[in-house]
From TrEMBL:
Residues 1-24 are annotated as: Disordered. NCBIfam families: hopene_cyclase, squalene_cyclas. The lineage of its organism: Bacteria, Pseudomonadati, Pseudomonadota, Betaproteobacteria, Nitrosomonadales. InterPro entries: Hopene-cyclase, SQ_cyclase_C, SQ_cyclase_N, Squalene_cyclase, Terpenoid_cyclase/PrenylTrfase. Belongs to the terpene cyclase/mutase family. GO terms for biological process: triterpenoid biosynthetic process. It comes from Nitrosospira multiformis. Residues 35-320 form the Squalene cyclase N-terminal domain. Residues 330-645 form the Squalene cyclase C-terminal domain. PANTHER family: LANOSTEROL SYNTHASE, TERPENE CYCLASE/MUTASE FAMILY MEMBER. Residues 10-23 have a biased composition (Polar residues). This is Squalene-hopene/tetraprenyl-beta-curcumene cyclase. GO terms for molecular function: intramolecular transferase activity.
Amino acid sequence: MKKFGGMARTSLQAQSPGSNNTPAMDEKMLKAGLEAARGALLAQQREDGHWCFPLEADCTIPAEYILMMHFMDEVDLDLEVRIARFIREKQDAAHGGWPLYYGGEFDLSCSVKAYYALKIVGDSPDAPHMARARAAILKHGGAARANVFTRLLLAMYDQLPWRGVPFVPVEIILFPKWFPFHTSKVAYWSRTVMVPLSILCSLRARAVNPRKVAIRELFTVPPEEERNYFPVRTALNRVFLLIERTLSLLEPFIPKGVRRLALRRAESWIMERLNGDSGLGAIFPAMVNASEALALLGYPYDHPARVQCRKALRLLLVEEGERTWCQPCVSPVWDTVLTCLAFQEDTEVDQRPIRKALDWLVPCQVLDAPADWQEDHPGLPGGGWAFQYANPHYPDLDDTAAVAWALYQADPKAYQESISRAADWLAGMQSSNGGFAAFDSDNTYYYLNEIPFADHGALLDPPTSDVSARCAGFLALYGQSRHKQALERSLAYLFNEQEASGAWFGRWGSNYIYGTWSVLEAFRLAGTDTGHPAIRRAVHWLKSVQREDGGWGESNDSYLSPQQAGQFHTSTSFHTAWALLALMGAGEWRSHEVHRGIGYLLREQDSDGLWHEPWFTAPGFPRVFYLKYYGYTKYFPVWALTRFHALNRKFPA
């Protein structure tokens, strides 16, 4: 796509990268680029006022969609062909398998599922792309070394014995809260996946697999002879593994009455949270497990709950002509509020579209609906927003803080009730260390990450700097005395979380650049002196990782290797926008680095007024699951350009 700002490259680089002088800024180009970007972004607003951009994950999701259809023998022939085309196109030419994010290294579990999905659709194992994938899988130890979720799927497809997967009995639903394991002690995403999965495991679910496709060729040792399905991770993991293996031998002695009670309890748990067209937990893995569990429990194909599950899953599909892919979930609330915040940076811009968007958000607030967080906070009134169109059992603190922030900036009087409920709920959900997590408070039972089921290391939802920053920033902006202690504790938490480099870890965005922007934005809203040593260290770090072209970039590899913080082989629009917003929030809008960064965004702007890049923008779970928010290359650059333009108009040189 032709670059919108390509012709003005020279004027935007009037000074060399090493110059101490601020480079000249082409005001006409800035205005033209900003107007084009705003217009393009507004054109994508839905009729009812909200925005929702696609959300892409790795190929495990579309592969699992195909495998789900064959598990249930509910195969849509045209659909599986289109999804298979998407999976083939995502195969990495360098290593022959499938990565967790664009340009990433080979991932064994993703590759096993992608290979199985393609083979079950009809791709010959002798086809060149399948041979390359198989060689890569075997090189990395074969399917027996895949993660727990992959092995569980393979067990249900009779591709490996049940002794090769963790013991996940449905009786976990009966455990008392004081027990070392309880569903309330794991993250919302974990419990919504585990409860229906426990039904599948306890009833030894077997995929229909109508074409009887097997993948024995992906094992280095015949799966029934494999003796090393559970490599020991730590000493504590060894203990848990011994306990789990012992308990699995005792499963036949579980009283039938207890098993029936647990199945009924798990079934009721699922039905209560089925969540209409948005599905259980509004996330794909939980929705698939729920759909399959209900079928296994005897719900007929045309039962309203089964119909509901199928519709929810279908709504995650993205149709792109000859190819189709599946999203892990949808992000309408997040996309809408971040777009609103971007436009709110300049109050002279027409705010009517933003008010329309905010009016769409207000009724999405979860007030008094039953929700899992109430188990630990029974007297706390609701007031949060979910990430998706609907997910009332699981409102999201990050979304809540961002929406309340935007509502306050728009009209604190008109939206007073929504803002007040949000602030009180957020303050009530603060963890004991002063931080805030995404969905729960004090979800810090770290020993549970050592159980055999948790080889992904993402079982929990502990407090993080980025979510804490959003909550602190809003509470500071709202400025109510009843939240003073919560605000002070959260700011102390943020100061304590700063890395030695000056950066902050980004749990929900890639990575240290995102985390650093989030925290510096909170300090701006809190009115923290920009001369504070923590802010100066952060500014120094951001400037030190600026790239020669004026932009910023960071690889998702930094989750594996922290020494790669702020490093990438290319700049990206969203990393550049985060760095610019952070620097401008720290009072650096006149700096050489900010001007160069603005120049980078304008040069890289495409002819449609927006930015388009293949890079994944965030982790779902660091090191195991990553996401590409298609909106991040749109509203974050607009946000940065709008802030720069507004500041320079307000404080002319």
